[in-house]
Specification:
- The chain has one domain: Up-down Bundle (AhpD-like).
- It is built from eight helices and no strands.
- Helix 1 runs antiparallel to helix 2.
- The relative contact order is 0.18.
- The two termini are 25 Å apart.
- By secondary structure, it is an all-alpha fold.
- Belongs to the AhpD family.
- Its EC number is 1.11.1.28.
- It comes from Streptomyces actuosus.
- Keywords: Antioxidant, Disulfide bond, Oxidoreductase, Peroxidase, Redox-active center.
- This is Alkyl hydroperoxide reductase AhpD.
């Protein structure tokens, strides 16, 4: 299982996705931990079993155990936070914004890896999950930590491509079942 085998599964009509997948992962300027933590967190957030099966072994091989666990933790906590904060933001009754969240999210304060890496992974997952409040919050932390816009954009490019590949391959799997 690998990036190459995932690219090989992308159908011809989605050639741009195949090329982008190779580019955003294979030619990334991100440090290895930031890159593979982003890939793993996004593979989880994509909810595509195909994508996760293909990318997880390579991510695990390129991450130290604590970074592997932290990337999974970023995907988990942001799955909760993105729904909560997106909903709070979308409600027309803004009083919900004054209420205490009451949700445990201790891993954000102590992720077991460099805080910037965890924030980058949380940001990328928030891009997949479409939470503007979380995107703004994590982007501000990343920028204050000194990351350039190009680095931040690299994370949401990875998120966009992994999400699109997952949606495409999952759709192809369903269509293949229907045709059988």
């Amino acid at each position: 299982m690998s990036l190459d085998s995932l690219k090989a599964r992308v159908p011809d009509y989605a050639k741009d996705l195949k090329l982008n997948l190779g580019s955003v992962i294979g030619n990334s300027d991100l440090p290895e931990q930031q890159l593979w933590g982003t890939v793993l967190a996004c593979a989880i957030a994509s909810r595509s079993a195909i994508v996760l099966r293909e990318l997880e072994p390579e991510a695990k091989a390129n991450l130290k155990p604590e970074a592997y666990t932290a990337a999974k933790a970023a995907a988990a906590v942001m799955a909760m936070n993105n729904v909560f904060y997106r909903t709070r933001h979308l409600l027309s009754d803004h009083e919900y914004g004054t209420l205490r969240a009451g949700l445990r999210m201790n891993v954000i304060g102590n992720p077991g890896v460099d805080k910037v890496d965890f924030e980058l992974w949380s940001f990328a997952v928030s891009a997949i999950n479409g939470c503007g409040m979380c995107l703004d919050s994590h982007e501000q932390v990343l920028r204050k930590a000194g990351l350039d816009r190009e680095v931040v954009q690299e994370a949401f490019k990875i998120a966009a491509v992994i999400q699109a590949v997952g949606a495409t391959l999952d759709a192809e799997a369903v269509l293949a079942e229907s045709a059988a």
